[in-house]
């Protein structure tokens, strides 16, 4: 529920997402507490957008963004299988085109494969519904051709860049928009901690 001056806002209240929140960001003000996003969970929920689950439950949702195959995904799938832990993989067109067997394995082993757009553009720069839909539909179509299954309707904005309009656009297409509450910065491949 979103409260303003002691009253709950009607669901149709406009512009609840701050204009500054065009790039998903988090702060961690209180140790042991959920992080704070630059849009609140309550505001995002109006658009079926999420970055936290039910915080009264000790459940972690593992999500992976897959732009390209760097040789580790099968090991990750092995580990998830060993621990019977389903995860979500947000994939782009390049990943499906270059590693279709891995995508099929994700689907067969019960993971969610979600939509990270076909070309990984800055979607916040796209306000046209048809252009927005094309990025998502082309990825979903390629997934269907590759696996024979319909793509689950979960959407992760590339780089976390989004606009309130994008949240509406994704919702109109039946997608849940999924941000994150902690990111492991693995894309700097030369700047990683040791195994220890
Ligand atoms: Zn990405």
Strand residue content: 5-15%
CATH topology of the domain at 60-184: TIM Barrel
Class by helix and strand content? Answer: alpha/beta
**Main sheet: strand order:** 5-10-9
Radius of gyration: 17 Å
* Count of beta strands: 10
Secondary-structure arrangement, i.e. CATH architecture of the domain at 60-184: Alpha-Beta Barrel
N-to-C CA distance: 43 Å
Q: Number of DSSP helices?
A: 6
Global mean pLDDT = 89
Order of helices and strands: EEEEHEEHEHHEHEHE
Largest sheet: 3 strands, parallel
CATH class descriptor of the domain at 60-184: Alpha Beta
Unreliable runs: 1-14
User: What is the name of the CATH superfamily of the domain at 60-184?
Assistant: Glycoside hydrolase/deacetylase
Which cofactors or ions or other ligands sit in this model?
zinc ion
Give a structural overview.
- The chain is α/β, with parallel strands linked by helices and 196 residues long.
- It has a domain of 125 residues: TIM Barrel.
- 30% of the residues lie in helices and 14% in strands.
- It has six helices and ten strands; from the N terminus they run E-E-E-E-H-E-E-H-E-H-H-E-H-E-H-E.
- The radius of gyration is 17 Å and the shape is globular.
- Zinc ion binds next to loops.
Question: Short description, anyone?
Answer:
This protein is an alpha/beta fold.
Write the layout of secondary structure elements.
Elements (H helix, E strand, L loop, with lengths): L2 E2 L2 E2 L17 E2 L8 E2 L3 H5 L3 E2 L12 E4 L6 H10 L5 E4 L1 H6 L1 H9 L3 E4 L13 H19 L6 E2 L8 H9 L3 E3 L18
Defining key terms:
about 200 residues; alpha/beta; TIM Barrel; three-stranded parallel β-sheet; disordered N terminus
